[in-house]
Design a protein that fits this description.
The protein is α/β, with parallel strands linked by helices and about 130 residues long. It has a single domain, classed as Glycogen Phosphorylase B (Rossmann fold, 3-Layer(aba) Sandwich), CATH 3.40.50. Helices cover about 50% and strands about 20% of the residues. It has a 5-stranded parallel sheet with strand order 3-2-1-4-5, with helices on both faces. The longest helix is centred in the middle third of the chain and has 18 residues. The chain is globular, with a radius of gyration of 14 Å. The relative contact order is 0.20.
Length: about 130
C-alpha cells in the first residue's frame, strides 16, 4: 500500500476498546470517503472494517507496570517499526486512538515530520492525574 494509490490514514489502537472505536471511525470515514485506505495497529474489528493490520492489539495490550516492564524491549521494537513504516508509507494523516503510553510517544516522534495527527479519544485527566 502506498500513498500514491489514494489517500491513506495510519491508525494506532493498542487495546480492545480502541479497536471498537477505530472500527466505527473507519466505517464512518469510508461512508464519506470510499477511496481512503487504512493501515496500522488494531484488532479484528478494525480489520473487518477494512484496515490492513500491521500490529494486532492482542500483542500490544498490557496492564500494569510489571507487564509493561517485562515487554519493554518488544514495545521499543514496535515503536521503531511503527516510525519506520509511517515514513515508508507516507500516510496523509496519523490517527491515534486512546492508548496514551504508546501514542503520546509516537506523536512526539512524528510531530517533527509535519504529518497531520488526530488524537481520537484523548487520555482523560482523571486517568493520568494531570
Amino acid at each position: 500500500m502506498t500513498s500514491s494509490q489514494n489517500t491513506v490514514f495510519f491508525l494506532v489502537a493498542g487495546e480492545e476498546s480502541g479497536d471498537i472505536h477505530g472500527a466505527r471511525l473507519i466505517s464512518a470515514l469510508k461512508e464519506k470517503c470510499p477511496d481512503v485506505s487504512f493501515v496500522g495497529h488494531g484488532g479484528n474489528k478494525m480489520k473487518s472494517a477494512g484496515m490492513e493490520i500491521l500490529e494486532h492489539v492482542d500483542d500490544l495490550a498490557m496492564m500494569g507496570f510489571t507487564e509493561v516492564l517485562k515487554h519493554l524491549p518488544y514495545m521499543i521494537n514496535v515503536m521503531g517499526n511503527t516510525l519506520g513504516k509511517i515514513q515508508e508509507i507516507k500516510p496523509h494523516r496519523l490517527i491515534l486512538i486512546d492508548y496514551p503510553g504508546f501514542n503520546l510517544r509516537l506523536a512526539k516522534n512524528i510531530h517533527p515530520l509535519g504529518l497531520p495527527i488526530t488524537y481520537f479519544i484523548m487520555p482523560q485527566v482523571w486517568a493520568w492525574k494531570e
